[in-house]
Amino acid sequence: MIPRRRFLLAAAATTAAAALTAQPAHARTGPAADAGADQATARRGAPQQPEGTITEMGPASVASPLGNGEFVGDVLYAGSRGLSPNVVGAYDVAKDSVTAHFDIPTGVGIWAMCKAGTDVYIGTHARSDLYKLDTTTGQVTRVAEYPDHYIWTMASSPDGKVYMGTSEPGRVWEYDPATGTSRDLGQPAPGEAYVRSIQADATHVYAGVGANAHLVAIDRATGEKRELLPQEVADRDWVSSMGMSDTHLAGGMNSLAELIVLEKAAPQNHKVVKATAAGEKYVVAVLIHDGYVYFAGRPSGTFYRYHLATEKLEVLGVPYFEALTHRLLAHEGRIYGIQDSAVFVYDPATGTLDYLNLVQRGFKSAPEEPMSIHSDGKRVYVGGKGGADLHDLATGQVSRLGIAGEPKTLLTVGSTTYLGVYTQAALYAHRAGQSEAELVARTGNQQDRPRDLAHDATTGLIVMPTQPEPGHMNGALSLYSPRTGTYATYRPIVERQTVYSVAARRGVAYLGTLIQEGLGLPPVTTTARLAAFDLVRRRLLWQVEPIPNARQISSLSFGRTTMLYGMASTGDVFEFDLRRKKVTRTLKVGAKGGELYVTGRVAYCTDGDKIYKIDLAAFTAKPIVEGLAGQWFGGEPKLALDPSRRALYAVRGRDLVRVAITGR
């Protein structure tokens, strides 16, 4: 452990961030160093490699993000997200080390875990499988599979049955270990997409629902459903986390950072407790223990407790600034909080709060599914969970830029690289040589997922489109002026759609949209649009539908004169005459949409498996690279253009590669 200390709110925020975000997660040589040497040689004027030549640069992003955990005896079994395969690591508290790993071969990650006796049950997502880890033998067995996209949450009942909350649709499942059979308990709130929190006692299952909040009690014997959420908070977004005791339920509600505490026998006896940290929006983990409700907030990362008897709320500290707490557990009188790559430990007897980096204690790090990629010419940023890996092109070394979130999009202007970070639709700035990124602003306005970044040289503005929080309507467009420090958000831009891609020039931002608004909200439009937004007058100028039935316009790039080029989710590339506001040519290129870059009279794009070169005069395409099979998080293929326009950066599997191009 790092030395015990009493965390005050402000001190913890600065100390933990400074101590941990600055540390490089890893440094590598080998293929990455070779790539650095190749890049340095190219800058010295050596002959250009043939177009399509691939140089291996090693794993794109190496991480060890956690999704949940469960104690059996003195061992904390913690599950990973985004690795291949995912693992459950056994952290022995007495030995202060991770002593074993257990592979979970299917699914993108582990969000849900619970225990029944000495068995730990593990729920995966995309695909949704249920595994049993017998902690006495170390045997892992897949015991069930479910049709829903995510298993978000799990709990066991006193008689050893396992209950799961899923999404798309929001449903509750029961698994009986005695018989090996599953029972569908249906949708607690028909029409809602998510069951995000769950608890079970001898008679009932309690399900927390979103994107419109419900707290539903399901009779385990009859299946009868009863709404417990008080009318005064029925307009909230989610009950996304939950804790339970013999007498009480406590649920974390979004997006006002509230905790609902009610008596199970008399739900009308309830309290609504507001998390107090500035800007707090979410209550992300809840535990009732020894007369207190412990809970964690976000985005601040603050750790709180509420005394049931006195109704007093206390701020206990900030274990790690802005970090997401996935689960709270009680063990041997202490409270453990599961965060990405680490665990914090609170001792109620002494008031001390410790932070345990599980990677330093042996938890497996491995290549994850990347989320974004960008090159400033000297390094390549690869965004993932909890930050970005920075690949130095001169030395081949890799360091970690820690951020409490997920960089979804990046852009370099001068010596500053801007990162659009999920959640909170945050904009960060990173200057070359600095160990940390600086938070510029959070978008607010019920936005959480940045989609693209652009710079307009005429106005000096950084333009960032964002997708709303699950269940909410209308994406937004935010404009940041580095010169004045102002940050302004406009919503809606294109009514009932999200702006997904952007390109800006001469005071106008050109916008490609996505028909999906907040996740879980069925689209009300059918076709993505191309629109123009005046950055000076701050108003929408026009909008068209360039590709019939396209779900999204995934990328936009300027050509010469008045031409704008875009790629749609259908795999079609289109040419758009900005003067005539008309699509002039279309070309079926890839299997689906991805990034598109124009360099002079040619363009390059990807569908995640191939990289294509497009002759813009003849408007024909040919693949220059095949077989990438890029394992992008969410299946959204990315591509980065080196500022020299002599190379692209892509992902093959989960490895970063440099692809030589002529740019002409």
Summarize the structure.
With 664 residues, the chain is mainly beta. Helices cover 4% and strands 52% of the residues. The strands form 15 sheets. Strands 40, 41, 42, 43 and 44 form a 5-stranded antiparallel beta sheet that branches. A 4-stranded antiparallel beta sheet has the order 1-59-58-57. The chain has a 4-stranded antiparallel beta sheet with strand order 3-4-5-6, with no helix packed on it.
**Tertiary shape:** globular
What ranges have pLDDT less than 50 throughout 5 or more consecutive residues? 1-30, 40-45
Q: State the share of residues found in helices, binned by percent.
A: under 10%
Question: Which structural class matches the secondary elements?
Answer: mainly beta
Q: Which range does the strand content fall in?
A: over 45%
How many beta-strand runs?
59
Radius of gyration: 25 Å
Main beta-sheet annotation? 5 strands, antiparallel
Mean pLDDT: 93
**Measured distance between first and last alpha carbons:** 56 Å
Instruction: Count every helix, treating DSSP H or I runs of 4 or more residues as helices.
Output: 2
Output the keywords.
single chain; 664 residues; five-stranded antiparallel sheet; four-stranded antiparallel sheet; 2 helices; 59 strands; WD40 repeat domain-containing protein; signal; TAT_signal
Structure report:
Residues 1-27 form the signal peptide. Residues 22-55 are annotated as: Disordered. InterPro entries: Host-pathogen_enzymatic-act, Quinoprotein_ADH-like_sf, TAT_signal, WD40/YVTN_repeat-like_dom_sf. Keywords: Signal. The protein is mainly β. 4% of the residues lie in helices and 52% in strands. Strands 40, 41, 42, 43 and 44 form a five-stranded antiparallel sheet that branches. The protein has a four-stranded antiparallel sheet with strand order 1-59-58-57. A four-stranded antiparallel sheet has the order 3-4-5-6, with no helix packed on it. The longest helix has 13 residues, at 31-43. The termini are far apart. The model is unreliable at 1-30 and 40-45 (pLDDT under 50).
